[in-house]
Amino acid sequence: MSQSFNPALVPPGVSAPADVRARTQPVRPSVQTPQGPAFADVLRDTAGTQPVQFSKHAVQRLERRNLAVDPTSMQRLQDGVDRAAGKGARDAVVLVDDTAFVVSVRNRTVITAVGRDQMKDHVFTNIDGAVIA
């Protein structure tokens, strides 16, 4: 069988056939390197932009139990919530010194707070993470 190309057999307006021998290797889609920041960086940046808030219940618990949250403790709580969010936790206990904060990580809201004296025999339920901050 002849491999020659006869231009007289090609209808007008149609280009010549491509050389079949040149494409012996399968055509693979090009692999593009991702552009922009990594997903983990974006998640950390977006999660870290919202400050931690306290629910009314949490404020009442803090007042009733005489628990103080100074700026240093607040920063450690914030960092603990960020770490819980980075691990994919939805609800977590963040331990800061002698205080346990039950936090809705998605809403970045402290639901309640428990001091050292109240933690004895206390069971935390409905959490999927714990952070020692």
Description:
- The protein is α/β, with parallel strands linked by helices and 133 residues long.
- The chain has a domain at 51-132.
- It is built from four helices and five strands, in the order αβααβββαβ.
- It has helices spanning 39-47, 56-64, 71-86, 116-119, and strands at 53-54, 91-96, 99-104, 109-115, 129-132.
- Strands 1-4-3-2-5 form a five-stranded mixed sheet.
- The radius of gyration is 31 Å and the shape is rod-shaped.
- The termini are far apart.
Task: Write a brief structural summary.
Pfam families: Flagellar_put. By secondary structure, this protein is an alpha/beta fold. It has four helices and five strands; from the N terminus they run αβααβββαβ.
Features:
19% strand; alpha/beta; 133 residues
Measured on Cα atoms, how large is the radius of gyration? 31 Å
Q: What do the pLDDT scores average to?
A: 84
Q: By helix and strand content, what is the structural category?
A: alpha/beta
Main β sheet profile:
5 strands, mixed
- How helical, in percent, are the residues? 25-40%
- Proportion of residues in β-strands: 15-25%
> How are the strands of the largest sheet arranged?
1-4-3-2-5
Total helix count?
Answer: 4
Pfam family, one: Flagellar_put
InterPro entries: Flagellar_put (IPR013367)
Keywords: Cell projection, Cilium, Flagellum
Region (Disordered): 1-37
